[in-house]
Amino acid sequence: MTSDTSIKYYFFKVFASVESFILPLVAFFAPVQGILLTVGAFILADTLTGIWKARKQGQKITSKGLSAIISKVLLYEAAVLLSFCLDVFILGDILHGIIGVEQLIVKVTSLVLVYIEIKSINENYHAVKGVDLWKEFKRLLSRTKEIKDEITNITNGNNN
């Protein structure tokens, strides 16, 4: 075997070993792929609104500041993956038996992470536009209730 052939041989051997480890790992975590993407999308939205806010306020955008996003993504996605392991190996069957919701720990963890990002997006938007999205959403819901009540009154013949 020549030197060039042996390098190729060992390269493919190592690649096959890594592949035989990574593929089952990817398959194991496949059920939370959508949740991982959702959390990632909210991180992206928060990042974009944060950049928008920084530009509007004349703040400098640095690579050090942007590198914090990588840490956040890794931390949040690891939290989702670890909560999935907790669900699968420890508490999932118990909670599913009691509450009847599959992957409850993963869903609650993800909901908390998404809530944090939504709150940050709202703060960024409020800083730029002066509008609190949460208050506007609540106002919209109350207006929807008013419209529903008006429709109910009209259909019942009460035209007050």
List keywords for this structure.
mainly alpha; 160 residues; 86% helix; 2 domains
Structure notes:
The chain is mainly α and 160 residues long. It has two domains: 31-129, no CATH class; 132-160. The chain contains five helices and no strands. It has helices at residues 3-29, 33-56, 63-99, 104-129, 133-155. The longest helix is centred in the middle third of the chain and has 37 residues, at 63-99. It is flat, with a radius of gyration of 25 Å. The model has no long low-confidence stretch (mean pLDDT 85).
Secondary structure layout:
Elements: H1 3-29, H2 33-56, H3 63-99, H4 104-129, H5 133-155
Helix pairs in contact: 2-3, 2-4, 3-4
Summarize the structure in short.
By secondary structure, this protein is mainly alpha-helical.
- Rounded mean pLDDT is 85
Low-confidence stretches: none
Bulk shape: flat
**Separation of termini?**
95 Å
As a percent range, the share of helical residues equals: over 70%
Separate helix tally? 5
Give me the strand/helix succession.
HHHHH
Q: Quickly give the structural class.
A: mainly alpha
Number of E-state strands: 0
Largest sheet, strands/sense/barrel: none
Number of domains: 2
* Percent of residues in beta strands: under 5%
What is the alpha-carbon Rg in Å? Answer: 25 Å
